[in-house]
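Contributing new complexes? Match this layout with D-xylitol-5-phosphate.
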Amino acid sequence: MIKIAPSILASDFANLGRDIASLSSWQADWVHFDVMDGHFVPNLSFGPPILSSIRPLTKLPIDAHLMVEEPSRMIPWFLDAGADLITIHVEAEKHLHRSLQQIHEAGRKAGVVLNPGSPAYLVREVLPYCDLVLVMSVNPGYGGQKFIPESVAKIAELRQMIDERGLATEIEVDGGINPETAKLCIDAGATVLVAGSAVFQASDPADMIRTLRCGK
Ligand code: DX5
Ligand code: ZN
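Output block (do not edit by hand):
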């Protein structure tokens, strides 16, 4: 029931094709694709050409997390490149509702992301238009950071907002996920966990994915 989305930011870029192919054998659920523009976050990662090249290598859904200014400009690039799901930050987009529609019109799933400093209520009006809400449990920009404990209360608040309205919106959590923090997030109501270093640095990634999913 809990989905695990390994972040390929932590993969071996010199062997990206090999790592993407491994994700299915490790029983991962989604591929988390972190896009950083050097403006919204102080780091650069990868963009549409890399997404297009990994697209044929896996049947798993590709979850594109756009950590960019003015994401609406770039949404068409990631739709064309083959993203199955696109998330945009509430802090970066003035026209959230329109951007969510733009993604849905292409037949893909859409979601919004909250930075650690952004309150849950910022997603209230667009919640019925979101397949997913992504809670950042670290400040976006880098892998390998420490989980911010206040994220747990925000997950619980979103769970209540979603359940009260009878919605099926997924709650995804991203940053500092390990077996301990995974359990806290699942207990608070998360349904999708992103994990970069925990999966790619594990001696047995398949076992780590199983452990994270069980929330042990
Ligand atoms: C951070 C990214 C995360 C990151 C997670 O800006 O959005 O997806 O890769 O990495 P870990 O799991 O190592 O914290
Ligand atoms: Zn991410």
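Reviewers usually confirm one structural detail per submission. For this one: The CA atoms of residues 21 and 57 lie 6 Å apart.
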